[in-house]
Write a structure and sequence with these properties.
The structure holds two protein chains of two kinds. By secondary structure, chain A is α/β, with parallel strands linked by helices. Chain A is about 35% helix and about 20% strand. The radius of gyration of chain B is 22 Å and the shape is flat. The chains are: A alpha/beta, B mainly alpha.
Chain lengths: ~425, ~280
Amino acid sequence: MTEENKKIKLKVSNVTKIFGKHTKKASQLLSNGKSKQEILKLTGATIGVNQANFEVYDGEIFVIMGLSGSGKSTLVRMLNRLIEPTYGEVLIDNENIISMSKEQLRNVRRKKISMVFQKFALLPHRTILQNTEYGLEIQGIAKQTRHEKALQSLKLVGLEGYEDQYPDQLSGGMQQRVGLARALANNPDILLMDEAFSALDPLIRKDMQDELLELHDSMGKTIIFITHDLDEALRIGDRIALMKDGNIVQIGTPEEILMNPSNEYVERFIEDVDFSKVLTAGHIMKRAETVQVEKGPRVALTLMKNLGISSIYVVDKQNRLLGAVTAQNAKDAAENGVSLLDVLEGEVTSVPSETLLTDLFEMVSTASIPVAVVDDRNRMRGIVIRGALIGALAGNDSYIHQSEIMEPSVLKEVN
Amino acid sequence: MNKWLPRIPLADWIDSFVDWLTSTFGGLFDGVSSGVENSVDGMVNVLGLFPPIVLTIIIGLLALWLTKKSIAVFTFIGFLIIDYLGYWDAMLNTLALVLTSVIISIVVGIPLGIWSSQKQMVRKIVTPILDFMQTMPAFVYLLPAIFFFNIGVVPGVVASVIFAMPPTIRLTILGIQQVPADIIEATESFGSTTAQRLMKVQLPLAMPTIMAGINQSIMLALSMVVIASMVGAPGLGEEVYRAVTQLKIGVGVEAGIAIVIVAIVLDRITQNAGKRKKRGNV
């Protein structure tokens, strides 16, 4: 998936919101490059969002992140015109919704774009089912059909059986599921989620994030997610836009933002990131020393001797992991004239390269040999050694690769 | 007193304005007058069809259905007392006067309240008028009411409506404006029309507040019955008024107690009717 062949679902160009009275003068000053503070001083107008430009691809999770007051909630509300931009364009499927009539806009809101709110914003006088079908009801869809669709969407979020309850009978997490089900019932292309999980406690929040990712996998909606929580952004975002004082300061994949913060602000933002929840085995693995099984125990022994290691991974011709052999076992095999297969330790720990460091700790600490990293066809990609794991967590860049392509590096490493 | 500024002849202007209204809209006033009179009389006649004990039981059962046992018992005993004190017919007249005033307050007040909640301009015009209606001494508009509608129950109803309608309007506005902004945002975000937002979200959520307004209107209308009796409206107020002017303290207290009983019953029933609505309303 390269960026060039992705379809653009939503394009935001030059979108600006100025709050206050002298918006004309303020926008003039803004285009002359005056800062937010200067404009506030000169006109009394506040810049909510300053000339935001970005594109969201079909089916991606685009996270807009910033601290409170950075303009992220204002920005997301301009995407469905709950807030009217002072100027700028918002194109959804190449149609500019800013120039639409009320009628057309209503149609877009009903069919294409739904929103999930921070404080759930459920209707307290309606049951869960009635809440879920609200969007369909106002489109005049027949009762039977909208019941079915609402039930389906409640099932998706795991709220079967709660149809007849009222919102205040549900916990926060469940209420937000209703919010999500209500948004999904319309079958929109785009989901706007405004700090949707921020009001939930941390454990529930994590569950909801997982479920959102699952739903996203199965339904392929385009999701624009607002958050002030960097961990959340890194966890769920395909790409992240970082906002500060109404400006978008950087847009990139989580990895790009972590590895190449574009300025000091971003750097400061990410300095407290728990790297163990961002970096993967692929980031810290080293090239693995392997021996093909048919080369025999003598070759294995020689390799180990030359490299100064006490055990080596054994692979087949396609580089698929078979197991590991220790120097002692290889020596015995060579003396007794049996093949490597007979002395092979088949029960070795192997992980896919996407495994987060946080999930690696236990394996690395208990394994007697470096943990093997394999791809989905069990081919050997590399190994993770303790030193690299600890080094990476300490923020030492020399242990972290930005891509997963291995460079031959230090080989002399005994676990 | 400033002698070098001529006195503004506001009183004269108003006198001629009232004259002009009477002569120009006489037909309209007559129409309103007979309409209101018919509705009050109709109500009294219908309520009068039931023997007192039957009506007492019906209202008692209504209280039981809408509220709780203790209030139903109070209602039953209270109405029996009114009957045994000999104020049954007067009470029916008062009930009809109050109910008519309140129905008019609701029919006019709620739409006006809704309109005001949607348009700031309307709200700006309506609010000072409401202040006027609530604070202007009742006797001031009682007199022109007699000009327009003659002596009798109608000017009583008009005075009650003027005094009793503001809470309904005010609390309708308040109730609608109190609907949380994020809920309004949510309804907007799904593409609701203004009418859908109002009917499906704002009004249902404002209902408890609107009911509180109606409850207040009922109580204010009841508080006007003595004043209404001064322009010839029959009922418990008339009994109180007569007793007071003739210095019959005992009779005054009797009729006063009857008014209090009616007030408590109407208050408890309407208050609980608002809360009784299915759960989730709170």
